[in-house]
Amino acid sequence: MGSWDFIDDPDYDGPPIPHRIVCKSGWEGCQGSHEKLWQVKECFEAKARGAFVCGDIIWVWTEDGKVTGRCPRPRYLTDRGSECTGGHEYIDQQVRISEGWEYAEDEGEARNLAMAGVEPRTSDGKIWPA
Ligand SMILES: [Zn+2]
Ligand SMILES: [Zn+2]
Could you tell me the pTM of the whole model? Predict the structure, then answer.
């Protein structure tokens, strides 16, 4: 992420940044270039397999410290919901109901779910810490 700050610098008019690889995958989540070859491959695969952008909230370290960002990685449909290549899993509502659990946004919601006999889980599918 840090290298984007450099490119965004309005005073920068030097040659192209050598460690960025131009990506022509055409995938909706692609930002035009990547630092690593595996990211380019991942991008092409995302386009070929029709992945969508994950978009989960993630922590990003910048010069200003830790800020929230959106996960830019490809997300694929699975037989239970969807999962991104960074490991962000989302389970469909029908599956959640049949398995007797539900996502909880915060502690209050987790408590309400538990009282209703539904097992509360965090956004990454772990059982809510009691
Ligand atoms: Zn790309
Ligand atoms: Zn993700």
Answer: 0.71
